[in-house]
Amino acid sequence: HALPAVEPKLFERFPKEIEEELVYGSLDAAIIATEPEAPQLTSIPLYDEPFWIALPNGHALSREEDIDLGDLAGIDAGLVALPSAAPAEQGQDQHKQHQQR
Q1: In this predicted model, what pLDDT tens digit does every residue of 78-93 receive, in sequence order?
Q2: Which residues contact 17 (CB under 8 A, 6 or more apart)?
Q3: Which end of the chain is more exposed for a tag (fewer CB within 10 A), N or C?
Q4: Torsion of CA 85, 91, 94, 100, to 10 degrees
Q5: How many CB atoms lie within 10 A of CB 55?
């Protein structure tokens, strides 16, 4: 370990709860998905995460190298995400059920 005295603990909380725990000192640090709103906290971006769009073969946008958010106007686009506790197999089973409909 680079920091042997640090024992990371994994848990999930709402961002507001995490901020309160940091402000009141019950947490020393937290890795969070959004910039904190509390003025008592300092934030440092760790990295930028790319997002990908999945399109059927032959879709008009599939030939583009770059797509802006405005390019998605007027198309039926959805966001599909599995709950963090769901195994990958569950997602595959749901996909198979959808294909059979």
Answers
A1: 655 545 544 444 445 5
A2: none
A3: C
A4: -170
A5: 15
